[in-house]
Each structure stands twice: as structure tokens, then as C-alpha cells.
Write a structure and sequence with these properties.
By secondary structure, the chain is an alpha/beta fold. The chain is built from 11 helices and 14 strands. The structure holds adenosine-5'-diphosphate and magnesium ion (MG).
């Protein structure tokens, strides 16, 4: 049986009187790319530090490949690569030397092949390896850690907000390399605040809040719980739509004498009923947009507290 790369259950960790982790669950299966989302202070980095054996948990389980994250930390480090959001380097080493030092644990046999891969990565990430690390910006230090991580061949990558100092172009390079890691069968835990990045590469998403898991599943499963946004141009009075089950937030705007623009959101389970009703309204144009991860996320964290309460009601009545 293949063990899950990451298995966390009911994980708890307090700092003084503050609970950083308060019953967190997270599973990453073999070959799975898992997004790990939550606002600042939610407990993402603490979870990752417990996984890396850098911090000891108060209770619960934290396993990597079936081994205990704390007790077996040293052996486990050979099987994973980790990139934090804020990379510290030795100021007097050059970027290239730092990469060699960071990858020494994972020495791969063929030196020519390693050099070729290193040069390719340096080129992709547009990093000059001859500069001393003390001259590097935050983004360049992150690039050093990313090149080192992708140069090794671990079974699991753990990224903690790895692109927070990178521009969008470099973020895309990062996403490409995660995609390649996925094709090579690696598992990835990607903590990120950039929802589009997670949406692009992740198979599953876990959303945490105040040290607790509030949602987890595949993107398709999470989307299923949400709504599609529909905009239509119609020639008939769209008043009937607002009365349909599962329809929310209807707004209408006159677009000339004959045409009305109607915007609404609809629970995914009710889409066909709404389309049937629309088809009787002399439709001149229509767009339907599936919910983005951002909308999902905002349901938990949005400024409107009723958004979360409303979802709870739905969950009960579903
Ligand atoms: N070493 C520490 N000492 C005291 N409090 C900490 C420490 N590390 C994290 N915390 C607290 O734990 C909570 C979770 O932090 P963190 O895991 O860094 O969240 P995230 O990475 O999601 O932003 C925060 O309230 C933070 O202040
Ligand atoms: Mg953090």
C-alpha cells in the first residue's frame, strides 16, 4: 500500500494562550497537488513547520509517508523539498554556491546532467548565480530556494507562499515547474495567497481558518457547492427569474427600448431550470461564469458575515 505523503488529523498547537492550530485536518495523496489556503494568521506556516519537524505539536497526528513528522524528521527530510516564503541565505555565499549547499543532501549521481538542469532552471527563473546572496532582493532569494528545490528529485514538495516576492511572469514560471513536478508524479503542498495560482495547478484545496479546516475537496467538488453567475440580454420582462428556486442577486438594467440586461447567480443544482425559464424570454445573448476559487474563499472570509452564515443554512438544508 502506498502511504499518503501527508496525513494530518486533529492537529493542535498553542503558543502561550493562543491556539495556532485547533483541530486541523489535511491529507495529500500520492501524486496530488494540494492547495493550502487561509488568510494571514490562519495557521498555514505553523502546520508546515510541524510537518517539517521544526515545531512540536501539542496533540493530534502529523505523518509524512506514514512516518511521524517529529520523531522521524531527519530521515524524512531526504524525501522532501521545502521552500518558505521568506528565504534566508548565507550572505557571503553566491547564489550558485547557496544552491549547491541547499541541494547537497539530495546529491544526484550524474554531475553533467545536474549542471545542465541547474543552468536550465537558472535561465527559467532569470537568476544570476554569481552575485553574493547579501545583494539579492527578497524575490531573488526566493528564486535561489526554488531553483534548489526543483533541482532535487524529492517525493514531496512543500511550498509556503513561495511566490510572495515574485512578479507575475516568475509566478508563471513557478506554476510551470509545479505542473512538471505533477507530471513526474510528485506530491505538492502549496500554501498560497494567490488564488489564481492555486486554481491553475491544484487538484485539491484545503481552506483553513483560525487553525481549523473549513473546506476541503477537489476544485470540482468545491465548485459544486457554489453558484454560477449568469448574465443575459433578453427581449421579454425577466421578472419571473427572481421567483425561481436557487436564484440569487437578480439585477436588471435597461439596454435600450427592447432589451433588458439581467445579472443573477444561481445554485449549480438549479441551472437547468433557470436556463429553461430564460429560453422563454427571447434571449439575445448570454454568458455563464463558473464560480472562481476567489468567490469560494470570500464566502468564508468576505466582509459580509452573512455570507458565511448563509452557507451554513444551505449546508443544513441540502
Ligand atoms: N513562534 C510563535 N510564537 C507565538 N505565536 C506564533 C508563533 N508562530 C505562529 N504564531 C501564531 O500562530 C498563529 C498562526 O500563525 P501562522 O501559522 O504563521 O499563520 P499563517 O502562516 O497562516 O499566516 C498566528 O496567530 C501567529 O501569531
Ligand atoms: Mg505563513
Amino acid at each position: 500500500m502506498t502511504e499518503n505523503p501527508i496525513e494530518i488529523a486533529d492537529l493542535r498547537k498553542s503558543f502561550g494562550s493562543g491556539k495556532a492550530l485547533d483541530g486541523l485536518h489535511l491529507t495529500v495523496g500520492p501524486g496530488e497537488i494540494a492547495g493550502f489556503l487561509g488568510p494571514n494568521g490562519a495557521g498555514k506556516s505553523t502546520t508546515i513547520r510541524v510537518l517539517l519537524g521544526l515545531q512540536r505539536r501539542d496533540s493530534g497526528t502529523a505523518r509524512l509517508f506514514g512516518n511521524d513528522a517529529w520523531r522521524d524528521a531527519v530521515a524524512l527530510h531526504r524525501r522532501l523539498a521545502y521552500v518558505p516564503g521568506d528565504v534566508s541565505l548565507w550572505p557571503n555565499l553566491t547564489g550558485g554556491e547557496a544552491i549547491d549547499y541547499l541541494t547537497r543532501l539530495h546529491d544526484t549521481s550524474d554531475r553533467a546532467e545536474r549542471r545542465r538542469r541547474k543552468n536550465a532552471l537558472l535561465e527559467h527563473f532569470e537568476l544570476d548565480p554569481t552575485k553574493k546572496a547579501r545583494t539579492y532582493s527578497k524575490g531573488n532569494r526566493q528564486k535561489v530556494a526554488l531553483v534548489a528545490a526543483f533541482l532535487t528529485d524529492p517525493e514531496l514538495y512543500i511550498f509556503d507562499e513561495p511566490t510572495s516576492g515574485l512578479d507575475p511572469l516568475m509566478e508563471a514560471v513557478f506554476t510551470d515547474h509545479v505542473q512538471q513536478a505533477k507530471e513526474a508524479g510528485k506530491a505538492v503542498l502549496l500554501s498560497s495567497h494567490i488564488l489564481s495560482e492555486v486554481e491553475k495547478v491544484c487538484d485539491t484545496v484545503t481552506i483553513i481558518r483560525s487553525g481549523r479546516t473549513v473546506e476541503s475537496g477537489t476544485l470540482a467538488e468545491l465548485r459544486h457547492l457554489t453558484r454560477t453567475t449568469v448574465t443575459a440580454l433578453v427581449g421579454e420582462d425577466p421578472g419571473v427569474l427572481a421567483g425561481l428556486a436557487g436564484v440569487h442577486d437578480v439585477t436588471t438594467t435597461a439596454e435600450g427600448d427592447e432589451i433588458t440586461k439581467v445579472d443573477l447567480s444561481v445554485d449549480n443544482a438549479q441551472i437547468s431550470a433557470v436556463l429553461a425559464a430564460l429560453s422563454r424570454l427571447d434571449v439575445r445573448g448570454i454568458t455563464a461564469t463558473p464560480p472562481s476559487l476567489e468567490e469560494l474563499f470570500m464566502r468564508h472570509y468576505g466582509a459580509d458575515p452573512t455570507a458565511v452564515a448563509h452557507r451554513d443554512v444551505e449546508a443544513v438544508t441540502r
